[in-house]
Amino acid sequence: MDRGTNSIQSILSTVIFNIGPQIFDIAAACVYLATALQPWIAVIVFVTLISYIPVTIYFTEWRGNFRRSAATPSCLPRILHVTP
Question: What confidence score (pLDDT) does residue 48 get?
Fold first, then answer.
């Protein structure tokens, strides 16, 4: 029961203190750019920032898979027996 409460608290604090303010900052920046400059500049910034999220997730998962495959027992003898 305690682990479930801690995990829910962790998710809520992440959403409230990390993701929420970032979404607000992106929206505020896009509104400012649309009013101060041109609306298409705000669209470019919005698309760039929103596309950054899935690209980051993809490369993070790819790197994790790469590191896990490098840490398998079949790879360890090759890593440990490197000759200079």
Answer: 94
